[in-house]
Amino acid sequence: MKEVLLKKFEEIFGLTQDVKVYFAPGRVNMIGEHTDYNGGHVFPCALTIGTYAVARKRDDDTCRFYSMNFEELGILESSVEGLKYEKEADWTNYPKGVMWAFGEKGHPVLKGMDLLLYGNIPNGSGLSSSASVEVLTGYILRDFFNFDVSNQDLALYGQYAENHFNGVNCGIMDQFSIAMGKKDHAIFLDTADLSYEYAPIVLQGYKIVIAGSNKKRGLGDSKYNERRSECETALSELQQVVGIQSLGDLTEEMFETYKSAIKDEIRIKRAKHAVYENQRTIRAVAALKRNDLAEFGKLMNASHISLRDDYEVTGIELDTLVEEAWKLDGVIGSRMTGAGFGGCTVSIVKDEAVESFIQKVGAAYEQKIGYAADFYVVEIGDGPCSLS
Ligand code: GLA
Prior knowledge:
By secondary structure, the chain is of the alpha+beta class. It has a domain at 2-201 and 382-386: Ribosomal Protein S5, domain 2 (2-Layer Sandwich), CATH 3.30.230. It contains eleven helices and 13 strands. The mean pLDDT is 96. The structure holds alpha-D-galactopyranose.
């Protein structure tokens, strides 16, 4: 891989003197969806697939960007001075946003770089290709300029760039799980205070299988922001009757006691999902610690049902993938993962059932939806690193 990337760098930017090679993973969330902006828990892990970078510091303030995933765009250039979101500059808004965020956080980036990227996470698949690029950029900046920032800061700056440069109001889960990833572990993160714990995922005899719906996201971002504001309104209604900071502060019982303070049926459903999903995530991690994979799987399934019926972020594509998976022997649990509205599902499948899972779910999906899904058997990997 490294050789191919270096060769490409030389072809695009000339000479590979003083270049360094880096990697940052993608992520999959096992359970705890749409809880990270509600002060709840999430349980994601970094993957061994992700984004590779070849980068070289420059003596001037110019940045030259090239992505092997968007070769048709060629080399895109900008200055580190006065960085601004540019719709037409497409993917480069992610690295530029992070350079801008470092400046906002007191670490101004004064010199440019030549940056070549290659990602083996399918774009727009819901495995956080954009957060991967953000954390990767932060990692490179720290390495180049010796900024005194932790991996957790890299996550926070990535989220800051996503929120304030790219205008997507995401929570902290994606960037955190990528920056803090640990091989064979998922991260049990409390988004209320960023306390976290690594939990080993030892799947003796099972695999994690991702199914990509290949549905284009379309209105995804605006629907995402809509769900956030529905939850915010529900929270302020609840705060009239109970002293809480976030929906994550409520147990199911408390929610049932106070829910009539929410003056709209839809908002009750949205808040119910946030509260119940948070409690499910806590229970799922406890089940995993007792080695009760069957219970973990049941909670994954319940998570999907709640995202389908109460949070309404699934759609026929994700529902088909999950409901077909549920029909099969050897499937411990299956649910949509990530923001929803397209993207992918995550399933825990017995080793010997993986092949027939891919074949059967794939065939049923294509028949019903009219185009194919993609399948990946994934492994849990470490956070960002230098490969030089
Ligand atoms: C997207 C966001 C995350 C999180 C998930 C839903 O991936 O970037 O912050 O909200 O959706 O759980």
